[in-house]
Amino acid sequence: MADNGPTPKDADDRHAKILALVNQRGFVTNETLAKDFGVTVQTIRRDLITLADAGKIARFHGGAGLPSSIENIAYSTRKVLNLDEKKRIARLVAQHIPSHASLFINIGTTTEAVARELLNHQDLRFITNNLNVALLLAAKPDFSVVIAGGTVRSRDGGVVGQSANDMIAQFRVDYAVIGISGIDEDGTLLDYDYDEVRASQTIVSNAREVFLVADHTKFSRRPMVRAGSITDVSALFTDQPVSKRIRALLDAEGVKVHVAAEK
């Protein structure tokens, strides 16, 4: 019988074993993985790219390790990671927000995708600490955009600090659209920056409905700053079904789950 070569299942099995080794050892080299699995270094590099794009590992020069709990991926990189998933989530969120509403939108690439989808709405009022979102929305004549005052982060256009929090707290809006960097197994929302977390917490406290937008990779990332609980939101918008444990938490608190499945 002819050998048809490796199959997608072979790659999936190898990915699972690579992930287990990284979790066990903390760091493994490309050469070690190639030797362990009997494949080329080029094949291992492709495997690591796939796993890194899914947020399951971090790629380093010569190998792979665990994702950092103290430093986020560069904003320019995050903008293109899981782009199709973010667009699907954004379209679904936009369907749940009517025209003639008021909104908070915080820092993040998925929230930026939501803002882009909302350009088809009419007469919306926004308060945001995201310069990228503010510039995008301000171009539409029937939109009103308030930008929070504070310190601008050059790496992602986020506006943070106590003055930003104080300004956000002066508003009470219909909807908040928030992103997050990671979600722990017990539903804890996690992020990398304390100032960003404080702004997000202020946003959550001053919105009637809170929509959390998070693609599936956020459930495998473990930043170090606690932002709250997944049960603090009104609805979760994601691209894949959540785990049984997370679903049980959400169901117990009446949090709706909307999955932007691939068509």
Overall radius of gyration: 20 Å
CATH architecture of the largest domain: 3-Layer(aba) Sandwich
| CATH domain class of the largest domain | Alpha Beta
Contiguous uncertain segments of 5+ residues: 1-5
Q: What sequence of helices (H) and strands (E) makes up the elements? A: HEHHEEHHEHEHEEEHEEEHEEEHE
Instruction: Give the class from helix and strand content and strand pairing.
Output: alpha/beta
Give the CATH topology of the largest domain.
Rossmann fold
Helix share of residues?
25-40%
Distance between the termini: 37 Å
Largest sheet: 7 strands, parallel
Mean pLDDT: 90
Number of separate helices: 10
Protein model, in words:
It is a single chain. This protein has 263 residues and is an alpha/beta fold. It has 2 domains: 8-65, Arc Repressor Mutant, subunit A, CATH 1.10.10.10; 76-259, Rossmann fold (3-Layer(aba) Sandwich). 40% of the residues lie in helices and 22% in strands. The chain contains 10 helices and 15 strands. The strands form 4 sheets. Strands 6-5-4-9-12-14-15 form a 7-stranded parallel sheet, sandwiched between helices. Strand 4, helix 6 and strand 5 form a beta-alpha-beta unit. The longest helix is centred in the first third of the chain and has 18 residues, at 8-25. The radius of gyration is 20 Å and the shape is elongated.
Task: List strands and helices in order, with pairings.
Elements: H1 8-25, E1 27-29, H2 30-37, H3 41-53, E2 58-60, E3 63-65, H4 75-80, H5 83-95, E4 102-105, H6 109-117, E5 125-128, H7 131-138, E6 144-147, E7 151-152, E8 159-160, H8 162-168, E9 173-179, E10 182-183, E11 188-191, H9 194-205, E12 207-213, E13 225-229, E14 235-238, H10 244-253, E15 256-259
